Amino acid sequence: MKLPSHFYKPLAIGAPEPIRELPVRPERMIHFFPPHNEKMRSKVPDMIKQVDVLLGNLEDAIPIDAKEAARAGFIEVAKDTDFGDTALWTRVNCLNSPWVLDDVTEVVSTIGHKLDVMMVPKVEGPWDIHYFDQLLAQLEARNDKIKKPILIHAILETAQGVKNVADIAAASPRMQGMSLGPADLAASRGMKTTRVGGGHPFYGVLQDPVETGERMLFQQDLWHYTVAKMVDACMSNGIRAFYGPFGDFKDDAACEAQFRNAFLQGCMGAWSLHPGQIEIAKRVFSPDVNEVLFAKRILESMPDGSGAVMIDGKMQDDATWKQAKVIVDLAKLVAKKDKELAAQYGL
Ligand code: GLV
Ligand code: MG
Questions:
Q1: Looking at the whole model, is its pTM more than 0.85?
Q2: For a Cys staple, 139 with which of 2, 36, 85, 108, CB 3.0–4.6 Å?
Q3: Is residue 198 within 6 Å of ligand 1 at its C-beta?
Q4: Which residue's CA is minimally distant from atom 1 of ligand 1?
Q5: Ligand nearest to the CA of 243
Q6: What is the pLDDT of residue 3?
């Protein structure tokens, strides 16, 4: 086992010091773009004004014969663009693929200083993170433009990954967070679905027998258990949890409901795979104005966070004070980026 005193030591001579606190910025949507597509690349300067995180996708959904063009396109965009306060991420190919080594090597050695986070798919256990941790440190040490470590975001999308989720979250100080990958996870678990995220009409609870009329089937959230397990693993290690993709671009209402369940359960954001999902993620992952106003009243009525008071007939104590602080802290973060919401929050 690695000694605790070595946890925060750089893994290569000349690599930047590992961080102890994650950068604090809104991450409501991780917006995916296919970098081999020239038209999509040309939209990037406009796109970065609308999103919190822009991600160049090199993995699934990129055709095999476009893998190298996607990598080259991503590097070109990263070189030519000033991202301002929008984070730049990439999703590299998975560890057993023929492309991943060149993805990591070429991206880090050319534009590693502009890259905030590398998303790693199909992570099975902490050993996958250890491999990336070491490789990134070696490559960072060779590129003197890189002054801060590139962080790692794991996709939770295999049955084994879910089993090992707590160890993955704790595997390295580079861990920024994790996303649920419902499409690959469904396949890996042998779920009988054909969808990218969301619910299923047959997964539900049947109402007890009724005298008259039909018994209702109440649809349940297929992802409830995994999201909860992921949130606990992430939050107990000081990293962030995200819902991943929602593949039915025609069903904005279902996308919004899935994102909102994740938000209420503790997630920071979700992926947007289509421009229409950017607004959905913004709406869902920015705290609700009435909730923020109520949370502010809780904080104001208990200045030192202790004791008990009644507000509108509801008991408040140290624990609701802490919940209120989560909401107000998030609102302050969002307010820095969104002037309209800042005014509505009164922040
Ligand atoms: C995402 O990569 C997924 O498999 O859902
Ligand atoms: Mg996947």
A1: yes
A2: 108
A3: no
A4: 181
A5: 1
A6: 86
